[in-house]
Specification:
- The structure is a single chain.
- With 257 residues, the chain is α+β, with helices and mostly antiparallel strands.
- The chain has a single domain, classed as Creatine Amidinohydrolase, CATH 3.90.230.10.
- The protein has five helices and 15 strands.
- The strands form four sheets. The chain has a five-stranded antiparallel sheet with strand order 8-7-9-14-15, with helices on both faces. Strands 1, 2, 4 and 5 form a four-stranded antiparallel sheet that branches. Strands 3-12-11 form a three-stranded antiparallel sheet, with no helix packed on it.
- Helix 1 packs antiparallel against helix 2 and helix 3 runs antiparallel to helix 4.
- It is globular and about 45 Å long.
- It starts with 8 loop residues before the first helix and ends in a 5-residue tail after the last strand.
- Bound molecules: magnesium ion (2 copies).
- The site of one magnesium ion has 6 residues, from strand 4 and strand 5.
């Protein structure tokens, strides 16, 4: 497990402070994410919350085909992850994925949620609930002495038994002083992920982030170089928490506690 940095209780306390800022951003966005608001206005409000907290957003300027332009990743409907705030107005029936990462006093927090706006079609609503349930399953089953692939398999089985696709191209990650640390944290298990498996142990901190699709699991990236969409343009949901492995189980660092 070379490269997986273990965190102390002191480190976790600092990560929880960063996690609280992420939680505040999510709370504020949930208040304002109503029909008619533009995704850019949501992004700007998130930046204000982060500025007031003394933290730094981790996404703006993130290296890619172009530096990422937004504070949040805002991914609507068929957008899976890495959507960019724009003039697009949120509409009744949309699902709006909000992903936020910040650094505070040298430590990172990262969490995502999907907001259901107004009258969302029942099949899309069910898919969102199943994605959140996948994250819950992962948190409940994360504990020392278990391999990540065992947890991932539980997530995958649940999602696929409900008929949803599990995105392969984007996965969770270790997190600490940097947003993206070792190991990779896939939401499925196969021969290849088992080859790079990790044994969970106290002090490992993971950003666990299931992404499910209503249709096929295949995704592609739009011409902006960032926005990932489902190939069949059916809806997709994304939920994420920063989760520490403790001596007996797991502790969520981005739930606002
Ligand atoms: Mg995230
Ligand atoms: Mg993440």
């Amino acid at each position: 497990m070379a490269g997986v940095a273990l965190k102390t209780r002191e480190d976790l306390a600092k990560m929880r402070k960063a996690g609280r800022v992420v939680h505040q951003v999510h709370q504020r966005v949930r208040e304002i994410c109503k029909p008619g608001i533009t995704t850019r206005e949501i992004d700007e409000e998130a930046q204000r919350v982060i500025d007031q907290s003394g933290a730094t957003g981790l996404f703006k300027g993130y290296p890619g085909p172009t530096p990422f332009p937004g504070t949040l990743c805002i991914s609507v409907n068929e957008e899976v992850v890495h959507g960019i705030g724009s003039d697009r107005q949120v509409a009744d029936g949309d699902i709006v994925g909000i992903d936020c990462g910040v650094k505070l006093d040298g430590w990172c927090g990262d969490a995502a949620t999907t907001i259901l706006v107004g009258d969302v079609p029942a099949d899309v609503r069910d898919m969102c609930e199943a994605t959140e349930q996948c994250l819950r399953i992962a948190i409940e089953n994360t504990r020392p002495g278990r391999k990540w692939s065992q947890v991932a398999q539980l997530m995958q089985r649940y999602a696929e038994s409900r008929g949803y696709g599990v995105v392969r191209e984007f996965v969770g990650h270790g997190i600490g002083r940097n947003m993206h640390e070792e190991p990779k944290v896939p939401n499925y298990a196969d021969r290849n992920t088992r080859r790079h498996d990790i044994m969970l142990r106290e002090g490992i901190v993971l950003a666990i982030e299931p992404m499910l699709t209503l249709g096929a699991r295949d995704v592609e990236t739009l011409a902006d170089g960032w926005t990932v969409v489902t190939k069949d343009r059916k809806a997709s949901a994304h939920y994420e928490h920063t989760v520490a492995v403790t001596s007996t189980g797991a502790e969520v660092l981005t739930d606002g506690n």
